[in-house]
C-alpha cells in the first residue's frame, strides 16, 4: 500500500510540471515593456521640427539667440528657417557652455504637448566654429 501511495504522490507532483512545459495555442503571449524607437530620419530644420510629431528625432545647426527667462537650461534657437525653444538635458548642459550668439549643432527629440508649441529636448550640443 505504501508503494502505491508513493506512486500516486509522485504522479500528482509531476503533472503540473509536465503541464507547464507544454504550449497552449490559446495562451496569451507574455507582456513586456519595450521602448518606443523611432526609425525616421532626423528632422534638419526648425521649420520642419515645429511641424513634427512628438518624439521625432531632430538634428539642427544654427545660433543660440538668447537664454529663456525662468528656465535654467532653456534657450531660443534660430537656424534661418525659424525659431524654437530648446531645453538642454543635464549631460548636454554640462558638456556645452552656451551663450547668446553661439553657433551650435543640437541633437535631440521634439516634445509636443496638445495645444502647445513643440520644444526640442536636447541630448547632445556641440559648439561650431
From TrEMBL:
Keyword Signal found: yes
InterPro entries documented for this protein: BOBF_sf, CarO-like
Entry-linked Pfam families: BOF
Keywords: Signal
Signal peptide: 1-19
Domain of life: Bacteria
Protein name: NirD/YgiW/YdeI family stress tolerance protein
Organism: Desulfovibrio desulfuricans
Amino acid at each position: 500500500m505504501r508503494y502505491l501511495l508513493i506512486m500516486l504522490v509522485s504522479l500528482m507532483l509531476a503533472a503540473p510540471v509536465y503541464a507547464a512545459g507544454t504550449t497552449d495555442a490559446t495562451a496569451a503571449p507574455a507582456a513586456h515593456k519595450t521602448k518606443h524607437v523611432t526609425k525616421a530620419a532626423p528632422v534638419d530644420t526648425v521649420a520642419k521640427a515645429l511641424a513634427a510629431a512628438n518624439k521625432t528625432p531632430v538634428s539642427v545647426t544654427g545660433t543660440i539667440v538668447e537664454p529663456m527667462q525662468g528656465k535654467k537650461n532653456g534657450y531660443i534657437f534660430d537656424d534661418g528657417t525659424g525659431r524654437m525653444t530648446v531645453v538642454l538635458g543635464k549631460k548636454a548642459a554640462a558638456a556645452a557652455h552656451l551663450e547668446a550668439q553661439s553657433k551650435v549643432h543640437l541633437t535631440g527629440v521634439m516634445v509636443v504637448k496638445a495645444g502647445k508649441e513643440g520644444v526640442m529636448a536636447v541630448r547632445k550640443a556641440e559648439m561650431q566654429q
